[in-house]
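User: Fold this; tokens only.

Assistant: Input:
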Amino acid sequence: MMSLTSLNVQEFFILLEEFDVLWRQYHARYDLKGKPRVIEKLSEHASMSLKGSADKLFFVLFYLKQNTLQSCHGFTFNMSQGKVSQWLGVLMPLLAKALQRLQMLPARDPGALYLTLQLLAGQLATERAVPRSVDWERQKHEYSGKKGCHTNKNLLVSDEHNRVLYLSPTVEGSLHDKALADEVELEFVPDKDLLADLGFVGYKPQGTQPCLPVKRLPNQELSELDKQYNQLLASIRVKVEHVMAGVKRVKIVKDKIRLKGQQLRDQVMLIACGLQNLRVSNRNLS
């Protein structure tokens, strides 16, 4: 179950409980094309390609975890590529809502960090590869020079418990990490430490103390004290990298994403962060 969906059985059924309610509400009022029904429908048709909420949840989690071609996904579930696309258009928003009902989604409003941050914050910008657009202006915005490919970017803030507290809007890969942080105007609890990498040099939000590695100057070597400081900081900040690794267990945000549309790509990243929070919350309790 974990290798196919990124969740263990217990986490799957926790999510299924909310997902089932949302699916029943949707199916009663709308068809798969999103058209309102004239009369509410309380039971699924016997010929439906995915029967039961458990199969539907497994279908969408399996797709996100493996990032398969929709034609291959359809072959696995005995349906056409068009039907896969149709199901995903319905199920992914329901999955995001189920995670929201479980309070697993990160905040999208920077001010909400005041309510959630307690001890230590880690900040990280992450890039996701996207196909090269045929539009010249879009190519320029999405080209990330340091990565040598076209990307989308998000800013994440995590806490000491490996939960993703905040997820920024999805932006083009050409935007610098610090510029993105300045643009979203994050607010932090005063007198808290903020762990960040060298992409945030010069970034100092009001009331916080950013902890950045010492950067080596051209043609100079770091002193032994600076090296020890960097090693100590890296040993603390590695938890932030573990959070990002947890988010990218869902391969659709690790590999090149084939889904088109900024809103859809943003939704996929939001779901990946919600699944990370679900795993962390459940395993911390157990």
